[in-house]
Design brief:
- By secondary structure, the protein is of the alpha+beta class.
- The protein is built from 19 helices and 15 strands.
- The protein has 4 domains: about 80 residues, GIY-YIG endonuclease (3-Layer(aba) Sandwich); about 130 residues, no CATH class; about 200 residues, Nucleotidyltransferase, domain 5, CATH 3.30.420.340; about 50 residues, Orthogonal Bundle (DNA polymerase, domain 1).
- The longest helix has about 30 residues.
- About 30% of the residues are buried.
Length: about 525
């Protein structure tokens, strides 16, 4: 079992004087070198120095006193501006999830601006998440107020549509804000797209001359003693400058001192005594917040980072009630039975010479092979990687019970040699097959941080699926109040149309064409949904 080394307490007062008078982010660490608090500062020396003033602890509340008693050391990261400090603070809090931080625990995301040029009349809208949808995104922006003023300026300056959806309404076609140099009703789609192009260039910071023009107008207004107008222009220029200022994007791979995927993989290899770094890892988590929908997730990490294209989610089918052990067994069985099936299909393709890299002199046919399924999968992957493969390490969220259930299913499938561990959340204990004593890694171990990242991602993905199903159930429950719709007919309708949202869009004829639903009932359903 690993020994945790307690670090000597740093002379905090002395270290404060080494801080620069610059914006940045600071991280407080305890005697086990764990990050317990992350904060931002306009002036690092002034802000951090306030914590260690003798009078601070006397006036502090209980929580702050507990924090100050726990601080053993701190580190800092200098950034270019206060908004950047805000962005980095949020990223680091999500990364480390410190004990004394609460502000960003809700996975708050900063605003982006999205424009989809595939639309007939593209609009500039706010977004929180950048999707792979071929739209153009700008940001993120830390100052939401300044961003809103910038979007208002763009609407008036360039005559572009903001917010809303679809084609411009009658009001928007005649609205005075969109008459630069003419109303939307008087221009063609191609002319409007040129406006969008100009506005996009402005938002990307490619047209600084516009801000210079506003500054000239501001000075001219001041010369004319029109100070109210000058103040308005000054505020507008400040907002635009804040929005246009280049902002570093602190991604998971650029967080200072947070993640080194390759180093963490090597550390995990050494900690678990694996034959090599676990390039491909898969982690399972069960979400049984209620007995109505018990679901599971499987997330995949490749080269130490998430591989979202290989995430999978499952609804537990064979387990009555809440039984984590049986649920884990079901999802592991389903996952790797499927993987082995696809590997077998790949083997047959190789036997027929259809697969790339197949050697005509080798008989790949599995009929008379002495290998078990896992050995076949491993051999084929070494020769020519299959579309799917057995991972280098399997992780289950839980302790001995979940691990034992997963191991039994792997053995039934012939996957005897696949490394597998259980990660118990309360004390971050690592359970391994055949070893009664769990492994404990240091809190600041890169190997442990990597395991925590994949486990937390599996937990997030499972909970997200559970919430999605609950939302669907709530949406579907509206049919319970529809006259003439029994539970059986409700299931028929949902099976036919997929969701209440699609059922709303269906015509009476389409509803009536469903087996077991007559014309009269179809009219009742359509009228009922239209009224709600």
């Amino acid at each position: 079992m690993s020994t945790i080394v307690h670090k000597e307490k740093t002379d905090l007062q002395k270290k404060v004087h080494e801080l620069p008078h610059k914006p940045g982010v600071y991280l407080m660490r305890d005697r086990l070198h764990r990050v317990i608090y992350v904060g931002k500062a306009r002036d690092l020396r002034k802000r951090v120095g306030q914590y260690f003033m003798p009078s601070k602890k006397m006036r502090a509340d209980i929580k702050t006193r507990a924090l100050l008693d726990s601080v053993w050391d701190f580190e800092f990261h200098v950034v270019k501006s206060e908004p950047e400090a805000l962005l980095l603070e949020g990223r680091l809090i999500k990364e480390y999830r410190p004990k004394y931080n609460v502000s960003f625990r809700d996975d708050k995301r900063f605003l982006l601006v999205k424009v989809d040029e595939q639309e007939h009349w593209p609009r500039f809208r706010f977004a929180r998440i950048k999707k792979d949808d071929n739209a153009r995104y700008f940001g993120p922006y830390a100052n939401a107020g300044a961003l809103r003023e910038t979007i208002n300026f763009m609407r008036k300056k360039f005559g572009v549509l903001t917010f809303g959806r679809g084609e411009p309404s009658e009001k928007e076609l005649k609205y005075s804000s969109y008459q630069v140099p003419s109303r939307l009703s008087d221009i063609k789609e191609e002319q409007y797209r040129e406006r969008v192009k100009q506005a996009s260039a402005f938002l990307a910071g490619e047209t600084p001359e516009l801000i210079e023009q506003l500054e000239n107008e501001m000075r001219a207004a001041a010369v004319k003693l029109d100070f109210e107008r000058a103040a308005q222009l000054r505020t507008m220029v400040d907002d635009l400058r804040q929005t246009m200022k280049p902002m570093r994007r602190f991604t998971r791979h650029s967080l200072p001192g947070a993640i080194d995927p390759i180093a963490d993989l090597n550390a995990l290899k050494d900690a678990l005594q694996l034959p090599g770094p676990p390039t491909v890892m898969e982690c399972f988590d069960i979400s049984n917040i209620s007995s109505t929908h018990i679901v599971a997730s499987m997330v995949s990490f490749k080269d130490g980072v998430s591989d979202r294209s290989n995430y999978r989610r499952y609804r537990i089918k064979t387990v009555p009630g809440q039984d984590d052990f049986a649920s884990m067994a079901e999802v592991v069985r389903r996952r790797y039975a499927r993987v082995l099936l696809e590997v077998g299909e790949h083997a047959e393709e190789r036997a027929e010479g259809k697969s790339d890299g197949a050697d005509a002199s080798i008989d790949y046919a599995p009929e008379f092979s002495q290998e078990n399924a896992g050995e076949t999968a491993t051999r084929l992957n070494k020769i020519s990687p299959a579309p799917v493969r057995i991972p280098d390490l399997i992780i289950v969220d839980g302790g001995k019970g979940q691990l034992g259930s997963a191991c039994r299913e792997l053995q039934r499938l012939g996957l005897h040699e696949v490394p597998i561990i259980g990660l118990a959340k309360e004390f971050e204990e690592i359970y391994r097959p055949g070893r009664p004593v769990p492994l404990l890694l240091p809190e600041d171990s890169g190997a442990l941080r990597l395991l925590q990242r994949i486990r937390d991602e599996a937990h997030r993905f499972a909970n997200g699926y559970h919430q999605l199903l609950m939302k669907r159930r709530i949406a579907e429950s509206i049919l319970d109040d529809c006259p003439g719709v029994s539970d059986n007919r409700k299931q028929i309708l949902l099976s036919q149309f997929g969701s209440v949202a699609r059922l709303r869009k269906a015509t009476v004829d389409e509803i009536a064409a469903t087996e077991g639903i007559g014309r009269k009932l179809a009219e009742q359903v359509a009228a009922f949904l239209a009224a709600r």
